Structure formats: C-alpha cells, structure tokens
Protein 1
Amino acid sequence: MTTVTIKDVAREAGVSVASVSRALNGTGGVTAETEKRIREVAARLRYVPHGAARSLITRRTHTIGALLPDMYGEFFSELIRGIDLAARTRGLHLLVSSAHDGMDDAAAALRTMRGRVDGLIVLSPRADASFLHANLPESLPTVLLNSPLRGRRYSVLNIDNPGGARAMVRHLAVERGLRDIAFIAGPPDNFDAQQREEGYRHAMAEFAPGAPLRVLRGEFTEDSGYRAGAELLASGKLPRAVFAANDMMAIGCLLALREGGVDVPGEVAVTGFDDIPIARYVTPALTTVRVRIVDLGRSALERLAALLDAPDQTATTQADTLGCDIVVRDSCGARPHARTFTNKAR
Amino acid sequence: MTTVTIKDVAREAGVSVASVSRALNGTGGVTAETEKRIREVAARLRYVPHGAARSLITRRTHTIGALLPDMYGEFFSELIRGIDLAARTRGLHLLVSSAHDGMDDAAAALRTMRGRVDGLIVLSPRADASFLHANLPESLPTVLLNSPLRGRRYSVLNIDNPGGARAMVRHLAVERGLRDIAFIAGPPDNFDAQQREEGYRHAMAEFAPGAPLRVLRGEFTEDSGYRAGAELLASGKLPRAVFAANDMMAIGCLLALREGGVDVPGEVAVTGFDDIPIARYVTPALTTVRVRIVDLGRSALERLAALLDAPDQTATTQADTLGCDIVVRDSCGARPHARTFTNKAR
DNA sequence: CTGAAAGCGCTAACAT
DNA sequence: ATGTTAGCGCTTTCAG
C-alpha cells in the first residue's frame, strides 16, 4: 500500500510541497531547473495527485454526474455516448448513476453526488418540481433533460415531441393517405409519452379529421408493443397504420403483426419514435421520428459546461428544444429499399 | 452559493461537529434525543456531506472506475449495464471513462482516477503489461477484462473465445454439414479477435480437416463486415458458411450478401459472435456465440468488490473464464422460426 | 524563487 | 455522551 503523496516527492527532491505543487501544475514560480528535478522525482516515484484532496481545496472535480432512470436499451446508451463524447473533449469525467424509478433511490444518488461532481445532467421524466427542489443542492449547476419543468432554477433541454408526432401523422395521413392510424402510448406518468400522445391527438384532428382515434396502452417496452399488436389483431379490425410512441414498441408490434400473418407495410404501416440504432436493422426497416439522441447528450453537456464556466449564467437558462424530423424507411410502405451504415463496432 | 457544511449544522444545533458526524453516520455515541435534533437541523438546512472531504479521511470513495476503449455499440452498453447493475446493489457508484485507442489517453484517464475510485475495471484488449504497470497505481485493486495478461498483479476475467469459436465451427461443420467455412477476423491487435481466429483455425482442423481455410480481414465494424461480404461476392466462389468474429461484422456481411442476391441461409449460412441485442432482430435472425455480456460486467464488479472487501486477496486472483455457448437462430438454416423478448425499453 | 502555514470539510482518536 | 484536536493530501496566500 505504497501510496506516495506530494510530501514524498518534496522530500525526495529536497524542496517544499509548495514547490512540487507549483511545478507539477505549471503555475509558474519555479526555476526550469528545479521543475525538471521535481518532475523527474515525481515520475520515478510514480506519483499521482490525489483527486479528492485536490478538489477539496480547488472546489473543482472536473467530473459531471448523470442521473438516469433505471431503464436500459439503446436510447440510454446513445445518450450516454453523446454525453461522454462531449465530456471527453472538454476533459470532464462522467459519474453515471442510474436509479430505480423509486424516487428514494434517485434522491440518495443525488445526495452522494455532492462534492464529487461539478454539475449534473438529470434525465428523469417523472421527477417533479418538489422532488428536484428537495434533493438538488442549490449550488449545483444542473441541466434537465426531457422534463416538464420550466424554469429559472434549472436549464432544461427537451425533445420536440409534439413536432415529431405531428410530422409523423402528417406523413402517414397526408403523404401516404393512411387516415386510420392507431397509437401505442407510453407510460402515462412519463413526460415524453404524454407529449407524444398529445401530439398524435392534435395532429389527427388536424390531418385526419373525423378518422377514428385508437390509443393502446404501452410501457415503452418491446413486450408491451407486442401485446398491443396482438390486441389489434384480436380486435378483428386492423387500422391502416400504427404509430408507436417509441421504437421498441413499434418493433414489438411489428413482430406481433408478422406472426399474425399481416403484411407490413402492405396491410398495415408501422412507425416508431426515437430512431434507435436497431430501427434500421429490423425487417421491414422502421420508419420513425429521428431524435438525434447523441446530439441531445452532447448538447446537454455543452450547456452544462457553459454553466460551469459562467457561474451566474442562470439567467440565460431558457428551455431549449431539440428539433426532430422523420426518417422514412420501409415499414410505412413509402420506399422499396434502403441501406445505411454506422461505424459502431461490436 | 450557500454551501452548507457540517459546521453550520453543528452551530445551529448547538453541538460540536463531532456529534453531528456521529449522529448522521449512525456511529452511535449520541443520545437519541440529540440525534433527533441534529437530524432535524440537517434536514432543515438541507445539509449534504461533502463527498471528497469525507473520502479524504475515510479512504473510501464507494466509487469504482471503468476504463473502456473508445468504441461504442451494444457490446459496451451491455457491459456497462452489467457493471452498473451489480454496482448499484452494492451501493457503489460508477465513474466511466472511455479512452481513445491512443494509450496516452488511457494513461491520463487512469491517473485522474487516483483518489476518486476504490477500484478499477479495465477493458483494454490492446493494453500490454508494461502499459498497465506504468499507469496503474500499485495500490488500486483492478480487474482486467479480456486481457492477454496473466497474473499475480491483477485479477483477470476472460471470455471463452476459443471454446465459443470451436462450438460454432463444430455446429456448422458437423451438425449442419457445411465444411467450407470462411472467417471474418477482427483487428489483429485485439486480443479477443486473435483468440477467436485461432479458435476458428483449430476447430477447422479438428472438424473439417482438408476443408479450405479462408480468412478475411475485418475491424469489428458493420462496415468492414459488409466489405468482407462484398469481397466474397466478387471472388466468384462463395463459401457455404461465413463465421464472423463479432455480430456487427456478421450483420454487415448479411447485408452485402443480400444485396448480392444471395440467399441466406439457403446458399450461405452466416454466423457471428457476442450475441448483442440486435442479433435477434435482423432478418434472418443471427445464429451466434452467446457471450453473456451483462454477466461479464456483473462478474467483473463482483470480483472487484470482493477484492475491496478483502484487502490481501490478491493471492486468490486466478484468471477466470466465462463460458459461452451458441444460440441457434435462422441465419445458419437450422430452424425455420423463433422469437424471444427482452424487456428493455426505449 | 521558494518555504511555512493555513485551511478545504470531514472523521477519528483522545479527552472530559 | 459530548467536545477538542489532529490530520487526510492538496493548493494557496503570505513571508522571506
């Protein structure tokens, strides 16, 4: 347990700890000569500064915390990837913390972040104002993702759910001429799910007035999408299109329909929301609302970084929205073929 | 910037900081009465202990660091998920750090971990002994994943690449009777890639002696798999089966073959390695070597946790191997149909 | 240019 | 049972 500290280096180099600190941090105030000697000793001793000790005094951890819900899958992977990408270019580290939907868990996670991170990115579609107020240290710069909260207190970044849903319904109803569109909704207490459903309803009124409105309950899982598809099958009368509130449900529905012998997109078009990587690999390739997930993560981090640099920028803290467009593949019957690459490995 | 410290609580509650510490940490030695008062004050002031300060003295951060290569995709997401799952049940936090393949980057990442983590999980298939020796603090418990290193110094956890490759070749050559098997290899400097290729060669000698050996270069990317498929197509003579060193390459190859009008699995069987989530969604669903990626991550963390609990357990540090079996789907022509669910959302 | 000393916020002896 | 005190390893005035 040879934990070598700055003192060891100082003693070995025959200088004070102050000089070692100055030399190693390039703060100036040391002869090139002594600096060289100090660096040599440090290297020889394999000295590495102690992070906690340093941040205790500098009040900087160069780490940002990310609090995510306890859901996994490609949406979150991509989001983390975006955050990480941006964090790295800024020399920031990432402390991830997934929490059960139970808010107690999230609260505990939030508390332990104090003194370990310089700022926070919170994706908690169910977190309400009081929860955040109770658990977010006042002084910790925070960026909220996909949150219903508006505010002076936090910086908020949202996906344009209404716009995306509207664009999809428009495509289906107007361009493809399919007015009978069923919707598979997400969890009722999820903000994104709410916005997407509302977007669907509004857009139906706008682009397919008088057409039947059919909303099935889902949980954002493939499984629940499958069940919704089965339900559709069992109902005896299929819609001409199914718009799911996320891709995994769309895929589940696709499977159910295929098993039921339904031709997609021939008989029923199926579309999703998010454009997770899998979307392009299923057959037929999924037409969906493209959310630039990686960009979302990246933007969140950039905003947070800006907050860190400019202490009292809280004023500039307007709620921004990340636009999304639709990407047309095969599952809505619009085109016969397509192929694209990603460069992701393994 | 009202950063409330333990002193504030002490003053407000009319006690010493020591009592506050004792009360809040449940160390005992305080009247139930005063403890109650202290807790009330702490709650009212919304006091949250400062992590860095605390770990400076306790020498515990309750955080473990994960150093991953700068590759993204489902393999890594699943791995992180496994680690995170296990970490959470043990009350540990996760500091992720992806590094460019450039070792300088990794070195820097490793250094900044000092004082921020209690232990390390390193997945660095190219990291050699000297690199690790130079950059890993002697005193930091470390678990290496998929590393060629053996050793007394680190705990190593590997995937059974040779066994997996062997099982797949056996399935293809013996059970399916396809002896003409081409192999798409991974990056030459990657340990997993090396082992898988070697496993293929050995198994071919064992199960398909005399059969032509065909090895194409790949990079573990879908794109490189596609190119390999195209190469096969261009060569004029297709093998009866293609075994790719990972799933993404298998999928790329699948696409190339499909575009070339080749029937998979009718004319050519295609199989992969890893069993990433996408594997079951492509058409035809991919037969592959199942690596229980989540379990790999989980095991890594459990081992690390064991190391943390038992300081001098370094002796018990044998290199373990996680077995893998093959999962037969449609791309090798063995079965007509299949469907499975995952419960992952979004 | 360099060293001594004062903390950062907290816990853990050691007193009382 | 509670308070006092000495650090954890580091940076940063402030003297010299």
Note: The CA atoms of residues 20 and 205 of chain A lie 70 Å apart.
Protein 2
Amino acid sequence: MTNREIAAVFDHVADLLEFKGANPFRVRAYRNGARKVGDYPEPLAVVSEDPNRQLTDIDGIGKDLAEKIEHLLTFSRLPMLEELQAEIPAGVMALLRVPGLGPKKAAALHKELQIDSLDRLQAACEAGEVQKLKGFGKKTEETILKGIELAAKADERTRWADADAIVADLKSHLAGVPGVRQLEAAGSYRRGKETVGDLDFLVDADEAAPIMDRLGEYPGVAETIVRGDTKMSVRLDTGMQVDLRVVPARSFGAALQYFTGSKEHNVEVRGRAKARGLRVNEWGVFRVDKDKAENGEDGGPLAGEYVAGESEADVYAALDLPCFPPELREARQEFRWAEQGELPRLIELADLRGDLHMHTTATDGKATLDEMIAAARQRGYEYIAITDHSQRVSMARGLDPERLRRQWAEIDRVNKQLDDLVVLKGIECDILERGGMDLPDDVLAEADWVVASVHYGQQQSREQITDRILGALEHPCVNVIAHPTGRLINRREAYAVDVEAMIAAAAEHGKLLEINANPMRLDLDDVHAAAAQRRGVPIVINSDAHSTAGLDVLRYGVLQARRAGLTAADVANTRPWAEFKELLGR
DNA sequence: GCCGTTTTCGGCCCGACTGTTTTCAGTCG
C-alpha cells in the first residue's frame, strides 16, 4: 500500500471511532497519524524494510500505529477497520455530511429512529419524528432538512485560483466600510492550499455591525447561517461558506494567526504556549494567572496579562518562534526547521527567469509563436521553451518530424533577432501506450529541450504506466516529465504511477520533474514535490500555457512549490540563462 | 493512541454560536 492509502485507512478509522464516541484524543491520534503518513516523503515500505530504522521514529507514530502500518503493508487490509465498518453502516456515516449533524446527533438518529441513510433522514424529518427526540427540536429538524440538500454537494472544494477570484470580488465589495482598518482573507486560502473549503475573512474594526451588514448585502449571498457579536457566516449561491470575524486592533495579529491555521499548526502553537505558562487564542497571547487557574477560575478568553496580539510576528515572537510563511503552517516540518534555524527562504514568483512548457497555434495553442515570444519578453523572461504536442496527440494536431523541424527552423530564425530572450527548440513528446517515445531518437536529439508526458493509456495498471514513465526517464534526450501524475483537481484522479519510483529514476538519470502551474493540475503536488526535493531532483515550474494569458498561471505553481518548502535553489528555472544552459547538457 | 529537562501516568488548544436548555451540550472552525 502507498502512504496515501494507509493514511486513508487511518482517517477512516478516525471517522468511525469519532462516531462511536471514542476518546477524542485517540481519534486525534489516528487523524494525526494519517496526516504524518500521508505527508511522509518516503514510502513507509522502505522504512519498514530498513533494519536500521523504525516506523516509531516517525513523529506521531507509536507502537500501535506502527503495528497497524506493518499489517497494512503486508496484507493491504486492517481487521480493526473492517470490524468498525461492520458495526456502523456506511449510510449512517453519510449523515455526518449534513451541516449541523455531528457524531452525537447522528448516533442518536441511528439509535432512536434506525436512520441509516440521507433518504430515511429526510423522510423522518418530513414526518416530524426528529423534533420529538431529546436534544432535538423543531428548529433542528428544519436545519437538517435544509442541510440534506447541501450534503450532496458539500464535498467539493474550490480550486485555489477560483477561490482567489471570489476573494478579490468580496474584498472589493467590502472595501470602504467606515471604521474598517484592516481586512485579510485567512484560512487555507492564505496558506495557498490547492483547494479551499470555505473562506475566512478577518477584519480589524471596533464596530462589527457595519461590515457584517455589508457582507450580507453581497449579491452572491444565498443565506446567513449565523451572526453573533464578532462572528458571521454566510453561504454563497455556489454553496461556498464565507466566515467573517471582527476583532479590535490589539487582537488582529492573533486572530490572523489563529484563522490562518492550519488547525494542527495551531494545536502545536498553543501547546508550546501552554508549556511556557501562556495562553494563545484569537484575542491575543496572555500570561496565565497560575493561582486563579488552579482554583478553577476561568476568567474568559481575555483573562491574564496581555502579552502580544497586534501582529502575527508579535504572537510568534512571544513563543520564540519565527513568523512562519502561511504556506508552511501545516505542522509538517516547520517547527523542527525553526528549532534548527533552518526555516527555508521560500521561492517567490520574481525568482523565476524562464518558462519551459508552452504551446502555439502549431498545435492546440491559441497564440502564434511570435505572439508567445512577445508575451514572454513583456514578462521579462530570460528564456522559454516552445513545447508543442507530438504527433500521437492527433486531436491537438500534434507535430510530426517534418512539421516540428519547420517550427524549429523558424525558432532558429527568430532567435537570431533576439538579444534579450533565448527561445529553446522544444517538444512535449508523448510517452506511447506501449512504451517508448512518440518521435524518433534522431529527431529528439535535435531538440534543445524535451518534455515527456502521458496523455493516453491513463487507466493502465501501476506497473504498466510506471514502466512507461521510467522508460522515458532513461531516454537520453528527455529532460523532464510534465504533469507527472496526470491528476486534474476535482475532475480526474492521478494515474496509478509509482511516484516514488519516478522520483528515484529522475534522481538516478539526472532528470527534472515539473510542477505544472495550471490551476487544474498543480502536478506535482506539494507532498510529492517535497519528496523530489529531498532526493535532489530539480523541479521546474511551468505554465503549460495555451495562450499568452496562460503564461500568468506561474504564480499558482509557485504557491504549490512554497507549500512544498522549496527555495529558489530547488527550482531549475530560477537560474540565470548561463547556468540553466549547463543543465541542458547539449 | 501518543508522548515526556514539568510527567512512563496523566495529560492532550481554545473559543463562538445555536438550540434546547434553566446551566449546557453539540457543532464548528
């Protein structure tokens, strides 16, 4: 089993245990274990087989989880999960997707009314049976009925680029409300996560009502879910939830830190605060009054001496921590890096000097060669590669050797007239279904830059598709594998390719791997890109542009690279042309 | 279930809001 498959098993166990009302810390241990396993940069099978290493060396993996991992690696199943599944029908777990229904209420519905599907839940609500249960009422019944509709589509997360457009629109709608000093979008959006579940807006103001009223007037708002003194949540027509939180200036940094998350990062932050006799919440960092705490006096969220809170940097500094870039706040490596003084200086968009994957009207691009070159110059690039499709991609009118050589002759001609940009003669050459490249070796040998990729036979077995890609990596003319797993976010799963084997082969043969910056792809993802970096495989961040505007997606790829902890040195196309040229080996 | 120059047992982050309550449980983030 892959790390991700093992992580999915642990997550599933956590869901089921939570439903059963198990010790919440035990549930957390499974969730935490799932995350650590899913993020781990090497296959656990490798760790397991290495006599010098222990699975329990991994943070968050103890004796019990280590045994379960061993079992999964050997048998690809976990009896404990099967027992839990036998105990709790899948339809009952589906109830948890209804907003407002948690494990306790779902369990009560199952126990008292034998409800085991969303359909039966709807029928019970409509018959007025639910409101008769203890702890339920008429209002709850109505909320559930409304929530059942949402449950179906509640799973879909919004791609970051789409969320970014909504954020921009909302920000301009909320701009200019009197009394608003600062306004920031926090949450997973700010962490640059590839998909975003909901949006969290944070406002620095003394009065909450004006900004809340303004949010309520946003044309895309379908309903207000909650509205209190400092917090408001609305649902947009699209189903996306938007949370608004209003705090005073002295709390803005603390609230920004808190609402940026991730949850796991914050658990760590607060745990560290506690060890120092401090308490961190969205209102600030406070020194805990020991006497009062021991007497069981709570005192509310503002109790104790205010230590920090105006800026995020102040909050972290109060805990002797650096102000982590939001992209790193996932409780992965960042605290260890901070302790060792090795927090990476993450790559920025301005570090990129070239773009090595783009198309023209010769195949399925919308702009001509000249237009793409002009657009690249306008963006100040030092070098680009023109990489149209090869002949196998017939739908895109892929290039055969003759048409390709004509294009290259044209590039030669154009290059002579350019003194501020180098245009590489490239090709996005298909890796054929049966293995091997889509163009003869003598043609590939004439290229400056060969991008290899899979477009057909994506459903092949793990072994088959891995062999194809490893074959391409062994080919002396291939420089890089483009969109290495083929996933399309929310649309298509990755191929079954063994990513670890691909990374190992790239390392062995001195090849590169792409972060495709198309917001639908972002492929490699953050975890795989970190794994590649760890093996010393250089990454290239490419636009895969099919138009001049398409060149501007690089920023999404940079965000993904930052989440992977990549520095400019890890990304090949940050190098000046003179250095990059060396890497071509031609 | 994990973890330890506060502990090998007893901790494990913290608060807002709602509905059904008459002091709080459940849910959410």
Note: The domain at 90-153 of chain A is CATH 1.10.150.20 (DNA polymerase; domain 1).
Protein 3
Amino acid sequence: MRASDQAFEALRGEILEWTLRPGTILTEVEQADRLKLSRTPIREAFARLTAEGLLVPLPGRGVVVSDLSRETIIELFELRVVLESEAARLVALRRDPAVFLALRDEFLVAPALLEHDDDRREYYALVERLDAAMDAALQSRFLLAAIRQLRPHLTRARRLARDDSARLIAAAGEHMTIVEAIVDGDSELAANATSIHLKKSLKNILNAVDTTTETVTTSR
Amino acid sequence: MRASDQAFEALRGEILEWTLRPGTILTEVEQADRLKLSRTPIREAFARLTAEGLLVPLPGRGVVVSDLSRETIIELFELRVVLESEAARLVALRRDPAVFLALRDEFLVAPALLEHDDDRREYYALVERLDAAMDAALQSRFLLAAIRQLRPHLTRARRLARDDSARLIAAAGEHMTIVEAIVDGDSELAANATSIHLKKSLKNILNAVDTTTETVTTSR
DNA sequence: GAAAGGCGCTCTGTATACATAGGTGCGATA
DNA sequence: TATCGCACCTATGTATACAGAGCGCCTTTC
C-alpha cells in the first residue's frame, strides 16, 4: 500500500470518527512526523481530503478540518434527497430483480436483528449491501460520483445521530418500501420512498443536534 | 501564480479545447519537460485533473485523457438535468429580483447579437453571467459543487456541437423563459424550463456527434 | 519458427534539501 | 503607552535524487 494512501485513509478515518474534530488545524510537517511519513504523501492526502471537502485550506497556516454545522447538514441533505431519489428511480428501471429480491428477504428479518443492540452491526452491514447493489445497478458514472462525493460528509453527520431502536426499526421499514418498489420496477414509488426516508433521517439527525449541549461547530 | 496552478490551467485548457485529445497518454517527466517545470507541480496538476475526471490513471504508464463517448455525454446530461433543474427551482425562491431583471433586459436584445457571427462571443459572455448569477443566488454549497464538477466535461462536450444561428436563437428563447420564471419566483416553471432547455441542448450535441464521420472516442 | 525467460528501460512513488512568503512578536521610537 | 517596522520563524512551494516496480523487447532454447 502506498504511503500516500496510508496517510489519506488514516486522516480520513480520524476525521470521520471525530477524533480529529472540526476546526482542528493540521500542518504537513506535523502530520508527517506523527504518521512517520515524509511530507510528499501527506501533501497528497491533504489535497485529496481538501477535494472531498473534509479539509479546508487555511492560507499560511495549514489546513483545517471542515465545519459541520446544522446549516451544512441541511444543505447536504437538500442535495442528497435529489440525488438518491433520482438514483432510486433509475435503479428501479435498470435493476436485476433477483438481486433485490434477495435483499428484500434479508430486510424481512431485519427487525429481529434490531431487538438486540449487539446485532446492530449486522443491520448496518445489510444497509451497506443495499447501497452497493444500488451503486452497481445505477449504471450512471456521474450520478454515482456525485453521490459518492457526499458519503464522507454523511458518515460524519451520522455520528451525531442517536440511533435508538425505534428509529432503526422505522428506518428498516422505510428501506423495505424502497426495496419492494425496486423489485416491482416502480420507479416513482422508489423515488418517493427514498425521499421520505431521507427526510425522516435528516429530522432524526437534526433532533440529536438540537438537543446536544455540546457545540458541534468550532470554526467557520 | 504557483507553478502547479500553471500546469493545471495549461493542461486543463488543452484538454477542454481538444488540443489534448481523448486517449492521449501523458507522463509526468514528459509534461514537466514540455512545460518547463519540475515533476512536483505536474504531479499535483495530474491529481487535480484526475479528481475532475479529465484524466484517468493508467497504472504504470502515466495518465490518459479521458474518453467522451456518446454514452458518456448522455450520462452527463442525465445528471445535469437533475442538478440544474433543482438549482433553478432554488434560485427562483432565493434570488434577488433586481439582478435577474437586469439579465432579462440583456436577454431581450440577445437575438440581435446572434444575427452576426462576430457577436457570438458577447452572447456566450451573457450566458456566463447568467450562470454566475445563479451560482451566487443558489446558496447551497453542495449542489453548487456538484454542478461545478460537471462543467469541464460540458465544456468539452460543447466543443462537439455545431451551434448554428437557428439553435442559438432558440436557446436564447429558452434562457429567456428560465430568467423570467426566476424573476417571477415561479420555481416549478424555472425547473421545467431548465429541463426542457437542457434536453434540447443534448439533442443538438448528439445530432452533431452522430453526423460526424470522425471517431470521437479513441480509447475506453 | 515459436515460446519462454531474463535483462533493461522508463515509469511512478518517496524522501529530502532548498527557496520563498507571510505572519507574529518584540523592540524601538514618537 | 501605543504604534510602526524589522527580523525571525514556520509554513508551503519547488526541485531533484534515489528506489522499486512493471512492461516490453530481445535472445535463447526447444
């Protein structure tokens, strides 16, 4: 594995899991020293993370871990709803039914997984498989690229949400509706169900943000 | 100006104006030599152009100027319609009316500009001002970023189209409809008019592609 | 004559040294 | 005491040297 990939993955991971918090200032030399690499791969990692929007250049002082304010999260979902609804519409038209039938069967037993907190990881893994299947069925490189661009920010935002069992069970139902629409090839239903799911998802995150005493944004 | 910016702008310009054609293989050393720079800034330029999708890594052999096939153009517009329709919808809700009233007045006299081929540049400049005004009114960083991501590819695609006067005059009319909808704050009309405009635009480009004997794609 | 293996070239990947700019802090002067 | 200016320090920006890997061509052998 290339050193620049190591640096990228390491920094990205730390940003996504809030180890490196918004507002933290990073410099090339400091990170090169910490990660035991030279400045060159760090530089490349900074460039990639800046392109993704996780870092913002701070002229003369380095880069800063980007902000994730309430307003930013709203803007993020504003676009996410548009992109993923459209994606669901296209997937419903282009999918291989067998793949999504299998996923439907898995989602049928999902509520059982959510009874015990221990099995949550399995549920999250299932959702990831659904995402992967949709990516594969999408067949539109540009739309996929646009969705991928949002994912790191969504990962960061999701960390803010307190996923209680009630919300997760509801989410499982919403996913089921989407998967069934895709199986049926009902593109409009798939799009609408996705839109509804994401808006509820946003609401859940914003609820968590609003009831958290801790200030999330540290710089702007 | 930084050397890496120079390299980026130079290569980007050449790709967009088809001086560097799809399928052309570039290596760091070769370009460093040609542009009289060291490998470092070239490397950075390659990375940025790869992130934009104008270059594709060719493991062990350098990078290659990305393909722009008929299919790619269709996928490009598939996403563009979604993004720019949504943008028009939001702009109609968030715009400063004065700005777009002024633009409307300019578009009123646009057909006159298109009578002489010499004045086309003025018309193109007007369209650019409209885009800039919409970007500013949009107030959604993520949506704007997604649209910006498409622009270089659109610039390249547009080079393929043969814009005859008839098409340009029609386009001016379509733009006028969009601007008026924005002035009126009619978000649905703005979105629909944008969708129609872009679909006609795509048709025009595809017509040109289909009637061109020259093969556009050189690699895949 | 064809196929396989080895040698060599050229590519990227990384480290490091040097240049340069901008910002901060301290000191001097008004 | 406050403000202006200079110097130093630390940051990025750039060049370059070196290492490692992959591909192609050439040679040799069957």
Note: The interface with chain B takes residues 44, 47-48, 51, 53, 72, 75-76, 78-79, 82-83, 86, 90, 140-143, 145-146, 149-150, 153 of chain A (CB under 8 Å).
